[in-house]
From TrEMBL:
Domain of life, per lineage: Bacteria
Protein name per UniProt: Threonine/serine exporter family protein
Limits of the Threonine/Serine exporter ThrE domain: 273-393
Locations listed in the record: Membrane
Similarity comment: Belongs to the ThrE exporter (TC 2.A.79) family.
Keyword set, alphabetical order: Membrane, Transmembrane, Transmembrane helix
Membrane-crossing segments per the record: 138-155, 167-187, 193-216, 228-252, 264-284, 314-331, 340-358, 378-396
Pfam family name, one: ThrE
Lineage: Bacteria, Pseudomonadati, Bacteroidota, Bacteroidia, Bacteroidales
Membrane topology qualifier: Multi-pass membrane protein
InterPro entries recorded: ThrE-like_N, ThrE/Ser_Exporter, ThrE_2
Domain Threonine/serine exporter-like N-terminal, residue spans: 9-247
Amino acid sequence: MSIPEKYKFIIQLGKALHNYGIPSYRIQAYLSKVSKNMGVRGTFMDSPTWINYVFYENGDEQTYNYIESVAPGTLNLGAFSRIVETTDKLIANEIDITEIDSRLKTIHEKTVKVNHLALTIAYALSAGMFNLMIGSNWISVFFALLLGAFVYLLTYLSTKYVYLNSVLESIASFLATIIAGLLSLVFPDLNVGLTIISAIIIFVPGLAITTALEEITSKSLVSGTAKLFDALISLFKQFFGVILGLTSLKFLINFEIFNHYSNIPNWIIFLAIPLFSISLLPIFQVRKKDMLFGVLTGAVGFFLTYSFSVAGILLSTFVGSIGVVIFSHLFSKITKTPKVVYVTQGIIMLVPGSKTLFGLSNVFLNTTIVNVGNIGEQVAYILMGILGGLLFSGVFKPED
């Protein structure tokens, strides 16, 4: 049965938003808004692996039901911005509905173009700058940069080999651990624990956990719960790879993890914050016009959190989250870009993904990968602060 023409665009729009990793509650709210503007009645259900759209006419009479099994999406902020712009033009009658197919195809073609050099630099820079941000030393930063680039090589190869794709997180964590451990024999000052975490920071699902809790908070319970468990399984895959690597090193050589504290000046560490934010731009395929404001939003969130750190983790993260939303709203007004593009880039600077991995090592081992006290409490407070900030600033409020 072919899709009725008047429903076709809404279905294409929903599938595209799903493929580009937009949270389910946002997709459902956006589809409801678009269908209302088009004079179409419908209810929309989006979950990580399937979509269900029901359309009505003549009161409550169901006229068409669309159900499809889909793969989980990957976050692409550039594609999301372009889709929203296209939809807004359609609603404003600036383009005709017959142009939608070609425009969506053009957007998709842009997402599949991959600049491997840019992504290699992005993975390397994110690893190196994260290592610098959490207080390491220069030798650790240097090898984190190299291991970050190595992790992208594995990521690229995983697109060619199905088996490698299925074990990517574990094998990347395992190899990064082995390489860092062997390097420490030659470079005793290498901070092995922080270098390992930095190398795989792109995989650590801090943002995924936060997004899952966002969905649960917004009452999108099925999708939120599924995504939360998926993020936790991802975390366990990485933890398995790290622990397997550490165990193998101790079996093969006389190996122990030692924490080397940073002697790098604070002003240099602060320079790593915008650089880390910049490194995420190619990974999320952020458009050029949104890059500057995205980096500024991330910096604002981090520095607000840092400035209020004397008040405790919960309050400082809460203030940082509210600051991210306020500045995202301001920048959205200036650029006409969806607010979520900036909110995502800001919140990712606050999420506690790495600390969650540290916490797992503290639970299942006698010692943690790095020496951080009360790690479980810190993770809980950060997540509560982020969700509280988003809730109080109206992020979950349905848009008019």
